[in-house]
């Protein structure tokens, strides 16, 4: 019943639906039946009769040729839209008031992925260094990392955490690789959006993000696995984050810049 | 005039014939106007109930309203404002605007549309018919917790009137949801892609999806309640093993999305007003659309944050708290996008923008108290206190009502061909803003001090007196602003400045036709190539579609 | 349209709003039935008094009616195909669908009769009765509405009111019928397989 309506018609007539009382009557029937349930069966019967009659009437309206009428387009047409060529000037570099600054060239996002991979390779070094310096085995940090995901691993059995567990190593490596990739990708996306000066980019990627990340981990671990939190040496944790951040940021900063696609379409 | 045969249209129609024309109309614009008028009538009724309740709470141990009447009034006030004011005014405005905005001649199902209006109206009348039944109106609160609603505790037919009124009007709401989805998906002007519709249309699509998912469970719950009361079923009857808890889940599964049904269209109106009045395109249209859909889906999974204190498991508490806070993210995206649209714009401080700015500042506060309440641990302390009352009024008035007023001031010239009085609008705005803050800010304090909601009076010496008195004074300041608005609507119809087709120099299709538009909306619909088709017509040398 | 072609825009075809509307309506129906199913599942085994589902629900009868209803989905599909192919047989397949629906309703009526008269299970007996009659009853009401729709469409088609090979009334009625069938698959699984 509707599809024909929305195409603009040619000529002075347009086919519109005829006004009809049946929708209102159907509504009245439904409401009276409701009132009947609440109060007295008489309303129920009356509502039912009205409802049935309205339904039949409505179906009648749906039949071809019954529900529609040609309506002449006699209303005054809208005021013609006046073209205002040249009334608007778009801001361009150099126009007074222009504040929009975009770099012409930025580091590619793929540099972030590379940065994440390199950072991921370098990052375990401080972790292992800490393990050896503090008298743990090198498997200890790996097991701790895997423990952030596995519920069974916690601080109750420290001797266990010193041993080599192939499953835990595998999980640890997967977590580490995935996180390195994701955070690296984040660097690739975010670093080009901050001011294009090496100092800023290194400060953001090498210091700010690792700090935020350390804080986030500290907070989340206290909810997810508090026992594990006690076993992590947080200054060393932060150190390895800085190592990752500085490496990844350095890879991004050193990458070849590529041209930004021009804003707007052709 | 839309429906009359030509020879009749020249004669002066008598009152009866005029009324008849409205009763039989299937024109989406007339139906939209009827929805809005109905909603404003219910707004005044529900507002009157609120003012009477505030007067009762002015002093401790006051006896202005008897306890039962007080309980009936807060039940009716909540029901009225949600079902017969909020939803109808939004559905009505969407009814008027969506076909115009997408360049269609009418909704997809015009007769169904008319039916939807009439059942909504009759549903409202059915709820208010409870004044004439033994026992009077229901005294069950708008969320009608079982087993208070069972025959054992509520003998009179008042609860039946309430339940059936909501059931009947729910049918109309679902019909409107179906209609909007079909219209928006299937009836856009040639060339207009879904990512080119005015942003209001996106929010109506979101609201409609929520209507389709959230209202039927309420319908089912109401059916269960009616079966309990009339056919001896035991759904919510604890003595036969039934569970009051099921009602809570079903009601809030509807009830939470309902607040987004109520606020998304207001988001849409703000998204139309802010760009036009800051003379800039909407910032981040795609992200706004994504955020709308994110709100639609996330908010379907947060309902039990209304139920922290009934003793769900710790895990569920954490899940619902987390999910509820998640809604803050897409909502925040929207706030920042509106701010970014305003930033650097050439602001035109007319009434629509004034209300939009009121919306922006107030809604953020309501959103923040929402985050506080979503925190399960805090919620345990302030559940069912006046803090909650303060919060949701802040969202619904600061969000929906301010948004709707921005929209009504913006589109009134399109509907009537005349401008609303700016002077009256400014009075309305400032009275509303001051009165609103003064009413609902003290409620947060009273709530933190432990004042439970839904009490008809309170003991002196609890430290609640002052906050209640401030709130009542605020309500009395707020009340005239609504009356001024109603007066402005009527007065400007005759005396308003002539508006012309496009008084705000806007960009969307509804401004490309006459004010008011003819029954067929457009003589010919322009081919749409961008989000601002009217801009393209005005600036053929610099059209928008080059930049999209 | 022609204007669009003139400016070189490809105007993508729009979905038929009537079909979109039907899908939206069916989505809301799905939400409605989901709620009733949730109510049934939540109250499974919570009845304080008997009778319980295993005591009174007869599976052979329901398997029979289920086969009828599932077959009717096939017949309605054949009816549509016959109409689209322009071959005869639409009216037969369509009428067969309605007949199978009536058989299903008769089966349900017989089941209810034995539940009420023989086993004394009503809406008010216990939670099982409450949820069972509500869920199955609403489904049966939808089948009834479906049968009325089928017969109305058949009558209109006979009088030539539904021209063409794919009248939208036929398509939408068929969709509705498939939906009601789909709901029954869920109801059958929940009530007669899992819940018994
Ligand atoms: Cu909520």
Please give a quick description of this structure.
With 266 residues, chain A is mainly alpha-helical. Helices cover 59% and strands 5% of the residues of chain A.
How does this structure look, described?
The complex is a heterotrimer of chains A (266), B (548) and C (196). Chain A is mainly alpha-helical and 266 residues long. Chain A is built from 10 helices and 4 strands; from the N terminus they run βααββααααααααβ. Chain A has a two-stranded antiparallel sheet. In chain A, helix 1 (22-38) runs antiparallel to helix 2 (41-62) and helix 4 (124-133) packs antiparallel against helix 10 (234-254). The longest helix of chain A has 27 residues, at 198-224. Mean pLDDT of chain A is 80; it is low at 1-10. With 548 residues, chain B is mainly alpha-helical. Chain B has 16 helices and no strands. Chain B is globular. By secondary structure, chain C is an all-alpha fold. Chain C has one domain: Four Helix Bundle (Hemerythrin (Met), subunit A) (Up-down Bundle), CATH 1.20.120. The N and C termini of chain C lie far apart (59 Å). Chains A and B meet through strand 1 and helix 1 of A and helix 5, helix 6 and helix 16 of B. The complex binds copper (II) ion.
Largest sheet report of chain B: none
Which oligomeric state applies?
heterotrimer
Strand content of chain A: 5-15%
Q: What is the total domain count of chain A? A: 2
Give the overall shape of chain B, derived from the CA principal axes.
Answer: globular
Q: Report the CATH C-level class of chain B.
A: Mainly Alpha
- The overall average pLDDT of chain A, rounded, is 80
Arithmetic mean of pLDDT of chain B:
92
Q: Tell me the greatest interface.
A: A-B, 53 and 70 residues
Overall tally of domains of chain B = 1
CATH architecture heading of chain B: Up-down Bundle
Number of strand elements of chain B: 0
Put simply, the count of helices of chain B is 16
**Could you give the count of β-strands of chain A?**
4
- The helicity of chain B comes to 55-70%
The best one-word shape of chain A is elongated
Ranges of chain B where pLDDT stays below 50 over 5 or more residues in a row are 1-8
Low-pLDDT stretches of chain A: 1-10
Give the spatial strand order of the biggest sheet of chain A: 1-2
* Estimated helix fraction of chain A: 55-70%
């Amino acid at each position: 019943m509707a599809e024909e309506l929305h195409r603009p018609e040619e000529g002075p007539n347009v086919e519109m639906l005829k006004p009809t009382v049946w929708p209102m009557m159907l509504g009245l029937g439904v409401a009276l039946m409701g009132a009947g349930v609440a109060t007295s069966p008489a309303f129920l019967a009356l509502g039912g009769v009205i409802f049935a009659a309205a339904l039949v009437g409505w179906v009648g309206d749906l039949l071809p040729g019954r529900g529609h009428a040609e309506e002449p387009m006699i209303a005054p047409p809208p005021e013609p839209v006046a073209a205002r060529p040249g009334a608007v000037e778009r801001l361009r570099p150099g126009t007074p008031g222009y504040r929009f600054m975009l770099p012409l060239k930025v580091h590619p996002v793929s540099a972030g992925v590379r940065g994440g991979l390199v950072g991921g390779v370098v990052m375990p070094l401080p972790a292992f260094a800490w393990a050896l310096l503090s008298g743990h085995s090198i498997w200890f940090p790996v097991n701790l990392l895997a423990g952030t995901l596995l519920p069974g691993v916690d601080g109750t059995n420290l001797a266990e955490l010193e041993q080599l567990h192939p499953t835990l190593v595998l999980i640890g490596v997967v977590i580490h690789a995935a996180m390195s990739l994701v955070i690296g990708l984040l660097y690739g996306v975010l670093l080009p959006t901050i001011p294009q000066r090496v100092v800023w980019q290194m400060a953001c990627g090498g210091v700010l993000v690792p700090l935020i990340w350390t804080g986030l981990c500290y907070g989340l671990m206290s909810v997810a696995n508090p026992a594990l939190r006690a076993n992590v040496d947080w200054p060393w944790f932060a150190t390895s984050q800085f190592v990752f951040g500085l490496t990844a940021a350095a890879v991004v900063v050193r990458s070849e810049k590529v041209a930004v696609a021009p804003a707007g379409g052709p | 005039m839309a429906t009359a045969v030509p020879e009749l249209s020249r004669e002066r129609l008598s009152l009866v014939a005029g009324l008849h024309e409205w009763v039989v109309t299937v024109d989406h614009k007339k139906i939209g106007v009827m929805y809005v008028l109905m909603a404003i009538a219910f707004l005044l009724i529900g507002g009157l109930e609120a003012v009477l309740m505030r007067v009762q709470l002015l002093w401790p141990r006051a006896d202005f309203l008897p306890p039962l009447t007080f309980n009936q009034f807060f039940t009716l006030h909540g029901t009225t404002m949600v079902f017969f004011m909020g939803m109808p005014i939004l559905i009505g405005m969407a009814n008027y605007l969506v076909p115009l905005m997408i360049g269609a001649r009418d909704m997809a199902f015009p007769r169904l549309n008319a039916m939807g209006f009439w059942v909504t109206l009759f549903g409202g009348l059915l709820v208010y018919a409870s004044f004439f039944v033994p026992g009077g109106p229901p005294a069950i609160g708008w969320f009608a917790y079982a087993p208070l609603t069972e025959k054992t505790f509520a003998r009179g037919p008042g609860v039946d009137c309430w339940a059936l009124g909501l059931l009947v009007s729910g049918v109309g709401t679902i019909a409107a949801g179906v209609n909007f989805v079909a219209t928006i998906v299937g009836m856009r002007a040639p060339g207009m892609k879904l990512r080119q519709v005015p942003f209001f249309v996106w929010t109506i699509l979101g609201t409609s999806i929520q209507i389709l998912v959230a209202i039927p469970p309420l319908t089912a719950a109401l059916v269960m309640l009616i079966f309990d009361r009339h056919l001896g079923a035991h759904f919510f009857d604890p003595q036969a093993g039934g569970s009051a808890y099921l009602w809570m889940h079903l009601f809030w599964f509807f009830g939470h999305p309902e607040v987004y049904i109520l606020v998304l269209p207001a988001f849409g109106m703000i998204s139309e007003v802010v760009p036009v009045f800051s003379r800039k395109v909407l910032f981040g249209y795609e992200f706004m659309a994504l955020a709308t859909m994110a709100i639609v889906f996330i908010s379907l999974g947060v309902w039990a944050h209304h139920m922290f204190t009934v003793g769900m498991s710790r895990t569920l508490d954490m899940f619902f708290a987390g999910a509820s806070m998640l809604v803050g993210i897409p909502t925040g995206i929207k706030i920042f996008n509106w701010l970014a649209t305003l930033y650097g714009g050439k602001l035109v401080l007319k009434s629509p923008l004034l209300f939009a700015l009121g919306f922006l500042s107030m809604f953020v506060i309501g959103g923040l108290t929402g985050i506080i309440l979503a925190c399960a641990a805090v919620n345990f302390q302030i559940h069912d206190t006046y803090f909650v009352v303060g919060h949701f009024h802040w969202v619904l008035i600061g969000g929906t009502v301010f948004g709707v007023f921005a929209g009504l001031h913006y589109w009134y010239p399109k509907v009537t061909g005349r401008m609303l009085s700016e002077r009256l609008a400014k009075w309305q705005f400032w009275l509303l803003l001051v009165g609103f803050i003064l009413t609902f800010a003290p409620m947060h304090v009273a709530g933190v001090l432990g004042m439970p909601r839904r009490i008809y009076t309170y003991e002196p010496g609890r430290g609640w007196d002052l906050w209640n008195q401030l709130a009542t004074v605020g309500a009395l300041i707020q009340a005239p602003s609504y009356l001024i608005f109603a007066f402005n609507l009527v007065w400007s119809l005759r005396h308003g400045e002539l508006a012309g087709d496009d008084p705000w120099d806007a960009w969307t299709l509804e401004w490309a036709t006459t004010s008011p538009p003819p029954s067929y909306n457009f003589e010919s619909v322009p081919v749409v190539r961008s989000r601002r088709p009217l801009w393209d017509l005005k600036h053929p040398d610099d059209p928008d579609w080059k930049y999209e | 349209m022609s204007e669009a072609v003139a400016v070189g825009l490809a105007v993508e075809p729009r979905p038929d709003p009537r079909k979109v509307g039907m899908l939206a309506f069916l989505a809301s129906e799905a939400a409605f039935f989901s709620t009733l199913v949730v109510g049934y599942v939540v109250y499974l085994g919570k009845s304080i008094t008997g009778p319980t589902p295993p005591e009174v629900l007869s599976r052979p009868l329901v398997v029979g009616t289920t086969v009828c209803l599932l077959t009717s989905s096939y017949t309605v599909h054949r009816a549509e195909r016959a109409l689209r192919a322009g071959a005869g047989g639409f009216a037969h397949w369509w009428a067969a669908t309605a007949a199978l629906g009536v058989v299903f309703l008769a089966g349900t009526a017989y089941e209810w009769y034995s539940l009420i008269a023989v086993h004394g299970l009503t809406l008010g007996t216990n939670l099982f009765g409450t949820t069972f009659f509500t869920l199955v009853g609403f489904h049966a009401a939808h089948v009834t509405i479906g049968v009325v729709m089928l017969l109305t469409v058949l009558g209109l088609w006979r009088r030539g009111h539904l021209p063409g090979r794919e009248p939208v009334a036929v398509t939408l009625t068929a969709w509705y019928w498939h939906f009601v069938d789909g709901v029954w698959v869920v109801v059958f699984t929940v009530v007669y397989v899992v819940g018994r």
